[in-house]
Amino acid sequence: MTSILIAYGTGEGQTKKVAEYIDSVLEGQGFDVTTTHVSEASDIAVSEFDGVLIGASVNNRTHQPEVLTFVERYNQALADRPSGFFQLSLASAFSSEWARDGAADYVEKLEGTTGWHPDRVGLFAGALKYTQYDFKMRWLFKLAALAFGLDTDTSRDYEYTDWDDVEHFATSFGELVESKRPPSRHDGTIQSTVRGTVGRRGVALSLAIGLAGVIYFVSRWDKGTDQRQ
Ligand SMILES: Cc1cc2nc3c(=O)[nH]c(=O)nc-3n(C[C@H](O)[C@H](O)[C@H](O)COP(=O)(O)O)c2cc1C
To answer: How far is it, in rounded angstroms, from Cα 49 to Cα 165?
Structure first.
């Protein structure tokens, strides 16, 4: 049976949810799928899988450090077999060109840092998980959401992930692995699976600046809190 490893990093669980959905799609298509958090994958023989998918979310314009460590550690195994990367971000909740470019930039940065060039890339809209943020994060994200036209009711969470796109990505990757195509550098075209919910040109740049501001503010706040304690 063709085997696929899905290893992911996550903050509030949306990437885990997507990883598990991809798992169910591929299992349904007859693949033998193992899905695990990257931190729990240290004993996994990556080179024994026919294909490998890695997932991460964007947090302050970068991915989970443990995902980067995993990719660097298994770089050769990833290069030797069909591999794919899927990313969750709020940038992908917007359909503008700016947003698409912004979301793709995060992946390019990952590729530049690790030297890994996945054969397939899926860019998925993430979630606003107000109920999981602490008080200050909840309000900072509410302010950012107000500015960028996302949802602002902090008493609940909002999911922008397009599950049809995730399914399409999973199926496409399964076909790639099944075909046993030798691993190759992806051809520079990123398979964007973004379906917009807002659609205002230029909003991604504002989002990026706004999010960067939020993160900067939060980190300064945290430092201030640490110093006061
Ligand atoms: C602290 C924090 C920082 C974030 N920074 C970014 C960012 O720089 N760019 C972006 O597009 N999305 C950003 N996001 C949105 C997340 O990528 C999105 O919420 C995603 O669904 C999180 O997935 P996860 O639950 O698997 O971590 C951020 C979210 C949080 C909570």
So the answer is: 24
